[in-house]
Amino acid sequence: MAYKTDIEIAQECVMKPITEVAEAAGISPDEIEQYGRYKAKVSTDIMNRTDKKNGHLVLVTAITPTPAGEGKTTTTIGLSDGLRRIGKNVTVALREPSLGPVFGVKGGAAGGGYAQVVPMEDINLHFTGDFHAIGAANNLLAAMIDNHIQQGNALGIDPRRITWKRCVDMNDRQLRFIVDGLGGKANGMPREDGFDITVATEIMAVFCLCSSISDLKARLSRMIVAYTYGGEPVTAGDLHAVGAMTALLRDAVKPNLVQTLEGTPAFVHGGPFANIAHGCNSVIATKTALKLGDYTVTEAGFGADLGAEKFLDIKCRAAGLTPDAVVVVATVRALKMHGGLAKTELANEDIGALERGIPNLLRHVSNIKNVYHLPCVVAVNRFPTDTDAEIEFIIKKCAELGVNAVLSTVWERGGAGGEDLAREVVRLCEEESGNFTYSYELDASIEEKIETVVKRIYGGDGVSIMPAAKKQIDELTRLGFGGLPVCIAKTQYSFSDDPTKLGAPEHFTVTVKNVKVSAGAGFIVVLTGDILTMPGLPKSPAAERIDVDDTGRITGLF
User: Is 287 a catalytic residue?
Assistant: First the structure.
């Protein structure tokens, strides 16, 4: 059977004017700014309404990702449409795609099949310009640092200890390590430098965690960009850069409103990676969605050990949010890969491989239930090659943990394929109450917090902290940052920091190589393994297959 591509399905959709979507969601005409017919920004005042209490918050996360695919964003959108089909007032809150992956490995990132947000091409490309604004603000600050040094260096910045990098929203390995300031005195001071991808920057994290313009300014002001010759931190506030940066970000902080293929209101706003950042959409968008829907469905990036852990331990803590239910997405195919099968062997029934791989799912589910104490359901994203015996095996194993597993066919059927999952989510929200707890307490030391996540969430034996990282931890503690949560950057392909360790590995240690503070975002960044903050393009990037015809119609985006 020949399936239509995601972009073909999206381009066939007859979208509602965004004004109709806004009106149906309870947004007044003076609270909306249109970006064409099908996109808009909405007022940040909506999240402060007092005439309605917040709706139920549902988090969608997943097993450890594999090349077989899991469909977390697709499930998030399909679940939202499914809830709407059973009569619920629903909003969905998602991250914006980064251009790097769009042109790199995976193509577009706005859902898939008949569970997508539209206009798909706009969302995957320039959208409303938020990422450009974030990149401009980031690079303005970088320019002001070097200009300050050039103009006399009144703050005594040590050029060897500038921690702020420039950024670009593209996978470009050539920019990871550079030397700039060449060409003589008039062109700056030569120094080693490098670029991050925009979604890995602290400004992206600040953007997604702030609650207002004033909070944005306060967070920007606290960002540490360098250290003096005496070892004291220099902030963006010290450089008087905050006002100009905020001016660049003024419109970007307003949430973006679009729609699903079935017309459900969707807020797509902010987009940090979950392997190298905190992996959640903006607090402002989530709180706006909660004021407008009786149910708000959101997602967190990669597996539950990354996105969900950071959503719960960082975003919920910062924003005062508590999920009412968690959905863990799994596929038979991915679990068989965790059981050792090659991607070419996944079409054949193999209960043995499934049995070897399912501990990955069960560890994620156990973490949600037994560490965070939240109601949970497993969504089995069904593929045509999955057999009834394989599905029954997953359902039985989840039942042993006291968790229901529900089939999801939203990729093929849209909201109709998510109705059963929607009913189970409603049951969890209305009949089961969690006792939400974080995985660690803030008064623990930085080392203790890292070790707690490794042991309680990853299932490891502990951590190995390299001497340079230990020195960094000691300095950050001396500077008063020991009470912040930790944002651990590690591979998304394993519970460990080794991407080859599939399933639910045991008896491993995680190596901590670098520790730095994101004082504006309000967390400690912990770099493990071989993690990079600037990805590279693959051998055959998606960009090679993207094109535009004479009518302006885009093809190959996914």
Answer: no
Structure tokens that stand for 341 in this block: 């099968």
The percentage of the chain sitting over the pLDDT mark of 70, rounded to a whole number, equals 99
Locus of tokens 């996914």: 558
Closest by CA to 411, choosing from 350, 326, 331, is: 331
235 catalytic? Reply is no
Query: Is 274 one of the annotated active-site residues of the chain?
Result: yes
Continuous segment of H or E residues that includes residue 193: strand 191-193
What is the rounded CA–CA span in Å between residue 477 and residue 530?
25
Q: Are strands 90-94 and 265-268 parallel, antiparallel or unpaired?
A: parallel
Catalytic-role residue among 84, 95, 291, 397: 95
Catalytic residue among 41, 72, 166, 356: 72
Tens of pLDDT, residues 378-436: 999 998 889 999 999 999 999 998 999 999 999 999 999 999 999 999 999 999 878 99
The question of whether 411 is a catalytic residue gets the answer yes
Q: Clarify whether 41 is annotated catalytic.
A: no
Handedness of CA 513, 517, 521, 523 (dihedral sign): positive
The amino acid occupying position 193 is D
* Token pair 């852990």: residue: 309
**Tens-place pLDDT, residues 421-473:** 999 999 999 998 789 999 999 999 999 999 999 999 999 999 999 999 999 99
In which band, very low, low, confident or very high, does the pLDDT at 108 lie, cut at 50, 70 and 90? low
Map tokens 């949970």 to a residue.
Answer: 376
Q: Determine how many CB atoms are found less than 10 A away from the CB of residue 55.
A: 20
Instruction: State which H helix or E strand residue 56 sits in.
Output: strand 56-62
Q: Which position among 411, 508, 523, 558 bears the catalytic label?
A: 411
Is residue 75 scored above 60 in pLDDT? yes
CA angle, 407 then 410 then 413, to 5°? 110
Selecting among 44, 66, 74, 452, the annotated active-site residue is 74
Known catalytic residue at 4:
no
Q: Whole-model pTM? A: 0.95
Say which of 115, 274, 300, 330 is annotated catalytic. Answer: 274
388-425 burial code (b ≥16 CB/10 A, e <16): eebbebbbebbeebebebbbbbbbbbbbbbbbbbbebb
Q: CB neighbours (10 Å) of residue 170?
A: 20
The continuous run of DSSP H or E covering 351 comes out as helix 351-366
Active-site hit among 164, 383, 393, 508: 383
Q: Which two tokens stand for residue 429?
A: 């929200």
DSSP state of 29: G
Candidate list 131, 302, 393, 481, residue with the active-site label: 302
The one catalytic residue among 49, 52, 106, 343 = 106
